[in-house]
Amino acid sequence: MLELVLGVAAVPLLFLALWSLANLDALVIVLISSSFLTVVSFPLGPALVRIDAIVALVVLLVIAVRRDEREHGRAARMRWAYFALLFSLGVVAFWSSTANALAPVRSYFMLANFAVGGLVLFALWGLHLDWAKIVRVGTWVLFVICALSLLELLAFPGTSTLSAAPQGGNSFRVRGLSLEPNLMGATCVGWLAVMYYWRRSLSRRYGLIASVIAVACVLTNTRAAWLALVLLAIFVLWDLRSKIGVFIPIGAALFMVVLAILAPITQSAERGTFAWKIGNLLASDTGTGLYRVRTWDIAFNDIATSSAHQFGLGVNSYSQRHPLDLTQATEGYLSNLWIGWLYDAGIVGLVIFCGLLVVVFLASAKRFDAIPVFAALLICATLTNSYWMLFPWLCMTLVLPNQEGPDAGRYQRLRAANIDLVSSKRGRLP
């Protein structure tokens, strides 16, 4: 069944790939679409290479050949500051992996995955593309994946083509075409935040599309994505306050009533189910919350006993030192972005990575509207490190300057109208 789904999805992607040979906008659309397909990978020796990484390498090659734009001023300085930080982080992580990792080659491979995402952001930064169209097409691609996932849950309950088996109870989780439900949840809420940023370039029907993506996000059963979704909803309500301000207190009261009704239900729900996770949204003493805390304690103990505070133990080396996790069922995985960088590249690497994020945020075209994008990505990455994937980098790319901003279309039309008006008053053509 999964092969059939991927075969159907490959048809429009193949068409876009052929179109993209002569159209850079289409190439970026293919790149974004591939970032939603992290379940698709190809063997390369002992490793698996994801399709989004392959497409990203093609994009980097094409842009390296075709890019001839000259940059000046603050935007250029911010872009090269970002590159300097990315390069410095790569040097620190490479040195740490060489000196301290138990399997340096594995660390180099993961560092390459991270570097590809960072370089894609650098390569796309400042390109004058039709970014609004790119966001619209990307939204449709994710919408189709979410709609098919929800259809499977409703029409074919118990199947696991686009969903994952339940951790408890009998509720399957939406996985889409991501590696796992947590990544699907992060993808959905991250893209919804991008849609919020570009809302002035989207028609009203995209509100319905956003609703479908939001439902799929909720049904990934991922608590970090729920928290990010709540934060995004607050920004949306703030944006609509002049239109629905009178209903906000009423909605808040109804929300509290619903929580009060659900409270006893969630406390008696079976572990791992949707209701149980609602009741234990921030719990760290049971379930996956306890699992993560214990994993982080092990990571801090490794750092302390190895005296690796400054430069860490090597990229993604936690799994090398802990081939089995606490359940003794799978490879150890350090799911926290911040602790992960502290473990991999030490305090130096973590500080550089934070500086990299700050530079991108300060360079964003509209910082207030960009807050939900960064917040959604980082909230999710705090519980599931998604920065090894491509989609967080693409989401951050879509809030950068030197591109068509959310208000660009309206401003351009107004400017053209003003030029026509002034020219007609002066008795000459514009």
Q: Overview of this structure, please?
A:
The chain is globular. A hairpin with an 8-residue loop joins strand 3 (163-164) and strand 4 (173-174). The protein has one domain. The chain starts with a helix and ends in a 5-residue tail after the last helix. The chain has 430 residues and is an all-alpha fold. The chain has helices at residues 2-20, 24-35, 51-66, 73-100, 104-124, 131-155, 181-197, 205-218, 223-239, 241-244, 247-267, 274-279, 287-306, 318-321, 337-363, 367-383, 391-397, 408-425; strands spanning 41-44, 47-50, 163-164, 173-174. It has a two-stranded antiparallel ribbon with strand order 1-2. Strands 3-4 form a two-stranded antiparallel sheet. Helix 4 runs antiparallel to helix 5 (104-124), helix 6 (131-155) packs across helix 8 and helix 15 runs antiparallel to helix 16 (367-383).
